[in-house]
């Protein structure tokens, strides 16, 4: 493809991202996309056969760009905790730059289920690789890396929706600190205690305050009331 063709294709993808996000897949038309991109209607079919094909390409392209951006931004991080924080920050920036990301990706579940799953599977695959490496190096406690990857992806997904998409929050560092506090605890290299086991020892004050179960003293025994004697039978007259 020529450089000019690449630019035209990129314009169509950018326009489609906007149109699908604003109108939804069902209401959007190819004419809407070409009009938004400033491209002739007939030119569209040089690059895409139909509306669904460009929709799938938009979702795949968004995922590819997001993964590449996160990989670049975290490439100089020294440890996994720093990778998680920088990855979250980069994701928030991407959501800010692509406000239609959530709407477009979620529509994919109904337009093309394979495309929808591929978006998350590709993201998780790279995540699993990084987490597995961190586990080998002792930076992360050994767990199921795929399950852990989806847990961490879920954190980013919902935080981005709440504090970037729904309501732009200038104090995102506070949100990042909260998320990282949770992630640090979950990625602690110390083994977790067995389920149901209480590892906390009672304090000395608690021991003193606890009621004594010692046997009663001799004095206490002496002071114990004895049962009264049964009265004798009354004399018959």
TrEMBL record:
Q: Which residues fall under the DNA-binding region feature?
A: 29-48
Segments for region (Disordered): 186-237
UniProt keywords, alphabetically: DNA-binding
Q: Where is the composition biased (Low complexity)?
A: 201-218
Q: What is this protein called?
A: HTH tetR-type domain-containing protein
A Pfam family (short name) is TetR_N
Q: Which SUPFAM superfamilies does the record cross-reference, listed alphabetically?
A: Homeodomain-like (SSF46689), Tetracyclin repressor-like, C-terminal domain (SSF48498)
Basic residues compositional bias, start-end = 219-237
What GO molecular function terms would the record report?
A: DNA binding
Task: Look up keyword Iron and say if it applies.
Answer: no
Tell me the organism's taxonomic lineage. Bacteria, Pseudomonadati, Myxococcota, Myxococcia, Myxococcales
Q: Domain HTH tetR-type spans what residues? A: 6-66
UniProt entry tagged with the keyword DNA-binding: yes
Query: What's the domain of life for this entry?
Result: Bacteria
């Amino acid at each position: 493809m020529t450089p000019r063709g690449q630019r035209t294709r990129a314009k169509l993808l950018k326009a489609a991202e906007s149109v699908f996000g604003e109108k939804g897949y069902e209401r959007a038309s190819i004419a809407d996309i070409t009009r938004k991109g400033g491209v002739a209607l007939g030119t569209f079919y040089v690059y895409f056969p139909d509306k669904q094909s460009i929709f799938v390409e938009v979702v795949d392209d968004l995922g590819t760009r997001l993964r590449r951006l996160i990989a670049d931004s975290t490439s100089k991080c020294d440890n996994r905790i720093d990778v998680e924080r920088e990855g979250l920050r980069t994701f928030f920036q991407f959501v800010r730059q692509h406000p239609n990301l959530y709407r477009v990706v979620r529509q994919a579940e109904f337009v093309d289920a394979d495309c929808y799953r591929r978006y998350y599977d590709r993201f998780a695959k790279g995540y699993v690789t990084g987490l597995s490496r961190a586990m080998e190096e002792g930076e992360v406690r050994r767990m199921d890396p795929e399950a852990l990857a989806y847990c961490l992806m879920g954190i980013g997904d919902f935080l981005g929706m709440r504090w970037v998409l729904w309501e732009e929050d200038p104090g995102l560092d506070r949100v990042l600190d909260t998320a990282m506090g949770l992630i640090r605890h979950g990625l602690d290299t110390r083994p977790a205690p067995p389920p149901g086991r209480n590892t906390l020892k009672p304090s000395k004050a608690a021991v003193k305050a606890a009621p004594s179960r010692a046997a009663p003293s001799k004095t206490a025994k002496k002071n114990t009331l004895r049962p009264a004697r049964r009265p004798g039978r009354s004399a018959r007259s």
